[in-house]
Amino acid sequence: MNNTLNIDYAKVAKLPSFKNMQKSRMVFTVPITIFFMAFYLGLPILAGFTKVLTHKAIGPVSWAWIYAFAQFIMTWGLCMLYLFRANGFDAQNKQVLADIEKLGPADEPGEKEGMK
Questions:
Q1: Residues near 94 by Cβ (< 8 Å), separated by ≥ 6?
Q2: Is residue 55 within 8 Å of residue 62, measured between CB atoms?
Q3: Secondary structure of residue 106 in the 3-state scheme
Q4: CA-CA distance, 64 to 47, in Å (whole number)?
Q5: How is the chain split into domains, by residue range?
Q6: End-to-end Cα distance, the chain
Q7: Dihedral of the alpha carbons of 93, 99, 102, 105, in degrees to the nearest 10
Q8: Do 85 and 76 form a contact (C-beta atoms < 8 A)?
Q9: Distance of alpha carbon 99 from alpha carbon 17, whole angstroms
Q10: pLDDT tens for each residue of 42-72
Q11: What does the alpha-carbon distance between residue 106 and residue 9 come to, in Å, rounded to a whole number?
């Protein structure tokens, strides 16, 4: 593919491979984001408005500390999950790029109107 940005983005958006790529990313990204935000915001909400996290869990350690530590584990887990799924996204990206090359360059401005 040449390095010029002469791409017809309207045609690219209609490509089945592009639509499939967008759909698969959204199916993965939206639920993961919702889960992350709910889990992340759970700590300040529970700590600020309830007494649930003030109870002792293990010895002198309260549930608030366990919840906070679990956020680190959750973040690392989601990062590893994304890295695993990114390989599939890369394969889809290559397919979209191959389909873009088949489309060829976009029409130059004025070419359709016979101005060239």
A1: none
A2: yes
A3: coil
A4: 7
A5: 19-102
A6: 25
A7: -70
A8: no
A9: 8
A10: 999 999 999 999 999 999 999 999 999 999 9
A11: 8
